Amino acid sequence: MAAKKHILVIEDEEHLATGIKYNLEAEDYRVTTMGDGPSALRLINENPRDVDLVILDLMLPGMSGYAVCEALRAAEWDMPVLILSACTLAEDRRRGFDVGADQYLTKPFDLDEFLSRVNSLLTLYSRRADPDWKPAAPITSFQFGNAQINFQTFEVTVAGEAVRMTQLEMKLLHYFVENKGRVIPRRELLENVWNVRGNVATRAPDQFIRRLRKTFEPDPARPQHFLTVRDAGYRFVARPEDCQDSSSE
């Protein structure tokens, strides 16, 4: 039996750390919580390969989350870091990435999105740890159903007919293709496609997904490729026969 993935949560608010630990353990992860940066760094220093993911608050006593992340990268520890912070300004996010964070999620956060990001980071880290693993080449073209897409030239055909698409539609489509098969929370789409805060009230994702369905689905009222997974987000399926268990609308 494979060993459980070990997640280190560095969070000084005890009630929040307890809630995060509870939900992660429910997903069968092994979780350690620490309330300050120096203690967490000492734990990692004892056995860096025992920690598969760091979930890091920024506003910590004595040593900021920025400094903790910077120390991790200075020591050349490459485990992924997910910043979980109430700091929502663009400069906070930018600084987090500058010191080496892999992802940045603002509080309050959606639990499904949080767990999805945790799973994605752990999957990528496992692949990076494999000496035979190489990064996937960027997706420049893709085919599904009766559609052919060239992301470099913006050329799209459906059933042999050319289709015009906007730059934002292509960006959304590309994001779906890169994450095919995975449930993508609305917040994640807003942050990574629209580049806005994930808690912004907007129907833009729904409107654009309807447009993708109208373009690519044989029957937009009964989508096979661009699915809405109730209470969770959206899912792109290139081969409908691979997806028989999702509720869609």
Describe the protein in words.
The two termini are 38 Å apart. The longest helix has 19 residues, at 111-129. The model is unreliable at 245-249 (pLDDT under 50). Helix content is 37%, strand content 18%. It folds into 2 domains: 6-129, Response regulator (Rossmann fold, 3-Layer(aba) Sandwich), CATH 3.40.50; 141-242, Arc Repressor Mutant, subunit A (Orthogonal Bundle), CATH 1.10.10. A hairpin with a 2-residue loop joins strand 6 and strand 7 (147-150). The protein is of the alpha/beta class and 249 residues long. The strands form 3 sheets. Strands 2-1-3-4-5 form a 5-stranded parallel sheet, with helices on both faces. A 4-stranded antiparallel sheet has the order 6-7-8-9, with no helix packed on it. A two-stranded antiparallel ribbon has the order 10-11. It has 8 helices and 11 strands.
